[in-house]
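User: My instructor asked us to take a sequence, write out its structure as tokens, and then describe one feature of it. I'm not sure where to start. Here is the sequence I was given:
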Amino acid sequence: MQFDDLTEAQILAVAVTAEEEDAHIYRDFADSLRNEFPSTAELFTKMAEEEDGHRHRLIDVYRQRFGEHIPLIRRQDVRGFSVRRPSWFKRTLQPEHAREEAALMEIESRRFYEAAMKRTGDAGIRQLLGDLAQEEGKHEATANEITSKQVEAGEVSHEHEAARRLFVLRFVQPGLAGLMDGSVSTLAPLFAAAFATTNTIATFKVGLAASIGAGISMGFAEALSDDGKLSGRGSPWLRGAVCGLMTTIGGLGHTMPFLIRNFHTATGIAIGVVAIELAVIAWIRKRYMDTPLLAAVFQVVVGGVLVFLVGWLIGAG
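Assistant: Let's start with the prediction itself. The structure tokens for your sequence are:
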């Protein structure tokens, strides 16, 4: 139906269901964030309580004017409303994303009340809708005020640190494990095949098979190692996909040069790529795992060199 076709009763009915839906979404946000981001969860709990208050006032006015039965008219039944995204649209909801979503919700609610106020001639309904429009406009300011207090108390900085830890647990760790395995474990079969055959295409096929096989193996191993419920590491299949993909990429990096027909050129480039891969791994370990740079370089380079030597000795022997 068109917004302009709504009666006063229908406008109030839409407002009731809208406030109920918004309160439910805010509580879902709070529930999703409570364990890891308690300060933001507190903010959304307060906003949900305010939406409940709006709904109660709307129902009181509706009961006085139109009786006990309130027809079910939802936002999506009226043209012009944007459909609310499900509150579970992200399994790993971040506080800043939730706040952005809430800001958009409040803006739309304010605009609805401002437009609805112009369509009613009943003084009581008009006053209520105008008051609600002002209150919806204040919600964003209230959120900012609460956020400022949380910043002063150091709570938001704690949330940012928690978000960083979750990012490391859910993406960096499985990705780094995959990259290390793909970059290091495929060195021995790849260079063994290279020095044994001096055939670049055959070597490429060995490297391709080793990379994809390692990716599949590592992906399933990561996914089945931890369901994430107690560790907070998130979806096991997402971690498995990240780990498997990075394992394959790590192996393909020094495999692709063997598409070059010249054996010495291909081998030289592949060794150079290996050096770059090991340097990247060392940097990631320093950046996200708080490993001292020299220690990270030593651990990665020594392991990589040993595996390379194994492949070279077996292939050339």
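For the description part of your assignment, you could build on this observation: The two ends are 80 Å apart (CA to CA). Try explaining in your own words what that tells you about the chain.
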